[in-house]
Amino acid sequence: MSTVTVVDHPLVQHKLTLMRDKTRSTRGFRELLSEIALLLAYDATRDLDLTTVEIETPLESMEAPILKGRKPVLMSILRAGNGLLDGMLTLIPSARVAHIGLYRDPETLQPVEYYFKVPDHMEERVVLVVDPMLATGHSAIAAVKRLKELGPRSIRFICLLAAPEGIAAFQAAHPDVPIFTAAIDRQLNDHGYICPGLGDAGDRMYGTR
Ligand code: URA
Q1: Hey, what domains does the chain have and what are their CATH numbers?
Q2: pTM for this one?
Q3: Which amino acid residue places its CA nearest to atom 7 of ligand 1?
Q4: What band does 117 get if pLDDT is binned at 50, 70 and 90?
């Protein structure tokens, strides 16, 4: 079974509380999401492979560590996933960015892909799939399934909040993909919202309704 890492750093927990507050402005919500995204990405990338390169410091030459292989990819699940990109790109400025768009077919209730754009050489890259809310898990499961068709070097899933139901469904579908989240909330309600949660992440970050 894949691991679930709750990033319990005090700064992450503090910022998450500010985001949950329904009186938080759109601007404040977006800024906090970006700040937390950086901290989540820091934790989710701590096992990236390193190699060494010979460099000259002002004093002498040395074999120094450097990231190995092609640039990592951040894959945003549209639209709310985009809210995590800024902060993560601050931490990993040379990362490549992929997007996947899915909607739910009203009759079959299955996710249908409407957009998919990724960089080349995916089979050599580490991919961080990002979506703020792991609720039912349907979108995340479908996005990772599609991504696996490209055979990336490794995949990890990063969200802000996860519901126990979403974690169970995701782990059943993708036992090889670790999950990183800032918190695991109590449950989903009848409308598929995470409780206590923070509402609709996309609406709150873009000021829509
Ligand atoms: N998506 C959201 O934006 N919020 C939830 O609570 C669940 C899914």
Answers
A1: 4-206 (3.40.50.2020)
A2: 0.96
A3: 193
A4: very high
